[in-house]
Design goal:
Layout lengths: L1 E5 L2 E3 L5 E8 L8 E6 L6 E6 L6 E3 L7 E6 L4 E6 L8 E7 L7 H4 L7 E2 L3 E5 L2
């Protein structure tokens, strides 16, 4: 099982960025995938997740209405579209999967408990 996040970089406040999470070794049809982030000096937090069964999604309060998670099963990739970014979105973003938990509040509430993690990608929001 492998996950690899990419797409991070420098973006101005109010701008947009799309992160990608390339996966292998498991099926997006069978396991939920989520995005987590860790800002400098802060605890890791859940950002969003997408369900394996019906593609339903869940977002943390801080990003609700600004970020969109999606997936392409054929490409085995999960995306995080970040719009109207703010300074406080600056963080290392990780994608992760758990072979037990479905996407839901419990999934996002386990920022350190996922079974499999990818290396993070740094997003810096600055003018």
């Amino acid at each position: 099982v492998q996950l690899q996040a990419s797409g991070g970089g420098l973006v101005q406040p109010g701008g947009s960025l799309r992160l990608s999470c390339a996966t292998s070794g498991f099926s997006l049809d069978h396991h939920a995938v989520g995005w987590f982030r860790q800002a400098p000096g802060k605890e890791r937090e859940g950002v969003s997740c997408i369900s394996s069964s019906d593609g339903s999604t869940l977002y943390g309060d801080a990003v609700q209405g600004r970020f969109t998670i999606s997936r392409d099963n054929d490409k085995r990739t999960v995306y995080l579209q970040m719009n109207r970014v703010k300074d406080e979105d600056t963080a290392v973003y990780y994608c992760a999967t758990d072979f037990v938990l479905p996407c839901g509040s419990s999934f996002l509430a386990r920022p350190y408990g996922m079974h499999y993690w990818g290396k993070g990608t740094l997003v810096t929001v600055s003018s």
